[in-house]
Amino acid sequence: MTTLLAGRSNDLLVVPGLGSTTWDLAAAGDDNRNFYLWGAMGGAAMIGLGLALAQPKRRVAVISGDGEMLMGLGALATIGIQRPGNLAVIVFDNGVYGETGMQPSHTQNGVDLLKVAGACGIGPCLDVRDEAALADLAQRLKGFTATLFARVLIDASKPPRVLPLRDGVALKQRFRAALGVKA
Amino acid sequence: MTAPADWPDRLFATLKRADIRQVGYVPDAGHARLIDRCRADPDIRDVVLTTEEEGVALAAGAWLGGERAALLMQSSGVGNCINMLSLARTCRFPLLMLITMRGEWEEFNPWQEPMGLIVEPVLKLCEAQVYRVQTPDEVEGAAERAVQFAFGDERIAAVVLSQQLIGKKVWTK
């Protein structure tokens, strides 16, 4: 996450998913332009879509986990029709449900989120398997112009958690204030 | 006096006055005309969903970005939304739901009845303000009040359009 967001541009808005990607985003540095999810499992990509459509001059990165993406798989079909050029959906895929005891997810048993996204008409779809590909993705986040999907294969480890603000109203208000949208 | 059949146009006019810019929907016969109007409007982004809960998240994202959204669905879709409504409730996102009823009047398909029967109590348990509409004349006023409640108070407002208003679905073999 830290590598991905190094030198983050001012116009990049980030929506992580419930679970590790929210903790990892907080660990990479708190920011008013992060909308952390402590619930709404399966909703990250669709929040990103609504935000991307509402803010065409900014870029939106949804950065979620494989379990969270699997719960809202239909969102990839919905995004595949809309295809806003300022939306990136990035899945950190460790093949397990880290919050609930490291049970295997579908991706560990053959379900390929990269192919799902591609089959939904989203492209480019990037398979990120090493540091070089991750650096390339980080660079793309600064200037992409087509709906982007990336699967980032990560280790199934459990680093210490960094827990961000969990007051949903406060998260919403500070995010909207950071964008300067009207009340 | 409102012509009986033009209530979807009245709803559309309300959405326009409220400056709704995103409309999420799962295709629905009762909302067919309203969906067509939204799709034909260049200032409204119509977002066809695979399931209604996607629309709850879509509307939250829209509000984060400074736009207003509405969510159109049939009564069965309310059940699909329940957990995702936690997003709107926890963060106080405005959510305007326009719901066409099935399973409550002249219903041919008994599979519609279980969800149809519990739409209103479920919405109320989810802290939604429910505006029930029985006749065409009530549509516009209810929708206006729902808009005020949703976007003024950042709460969930649900306009429940009765099956009697919408009319009986004609089944042909």
Please render the helix and strand layout as text.
The complex is a heterodimer of chains A (183) and B (173).
Chain A lengths: L11 E5 L3 H8 L16 H11 L4 E7 H6 L2 H9 L4 E7 L2 E2 L5 E2 L8 H7 L5 E4 L2 H10 L7 E6 L14 H12 L4
Parallel strand pairs in A: 1-2, 2-3, 3-7, 6-7
Antiparallel strand pairs in A: 4-5
Chain B lengths: L6 H11 L2 E6 L6 H9 L4 E4 L3 H13 L3 E7 H7 L3 H7 L3 E6 L12 H13 L3 E5 L2 H18 L2 E6 L1 H4 L7
Parallel strand pairs in B: 1-2, 1-3, 3-4, 4-6, 5-6
Helix pairs in contact in B: 1-2, 1-7, 3-4, 4-6
If you had to describe this structure to a student in words, what would you say it looks like?
The complex is a heterodimer of chains A (183) and B (173). Chain A has 183 residues and is α/β, with parallel strands linked by helices. Chain A has 7 helices and 7 strands; from the N terminus they run βααβααβββαβαβα. Chain A is globular and about 45 Å long. In chain B, helix 3 crosses helix 4. Chain B has 173 residues and is of the alpha/beta class. Chain B contains 8 helices and 6 strands. The radius of gyration of chain B is 15 Å and the shape is globular. At the A-B interface, helix 2, helix 4 and helix 7 of A face strand 2, helix 3 and helix 5 of B.
Jot down its keywords:
heterodimer, A: 183 residues, alpha/beta, 5-stranded parallel beta sheet, two-stranded antiparallel ribbon, 7 helices, 18% strand, B: 173 residues, 8 helices, globular
Summarize the structure.
Chain A contains seven helices and seven strands; from the N terminus they run E-H-H-E-H-H-E-E-E-H-E-H-E-H. Chain A is of the alpha/beta class. The chains are: A alpha/beta (183), B alpha/beta (173).
Radius of gyration of chain B: 15 Å
Number of helices of chain B: 8
Largest interface, by Cβ-Cβ below 8 angstroms: which chains and how many residues each?
A-B, 36 and 32 residues
Structural class of chain A: alpha/beta
Share of helix of chain B, binned: 40-55%
Major sheet summary line of chain A: 5 strands, parallel
Number of strands of chain B: 6
Termini Cα gap of chain A:
31 Å
- Which segments of chain A are poorly predicted (pLDDT under 50) over 5 or more consecutive residues? none
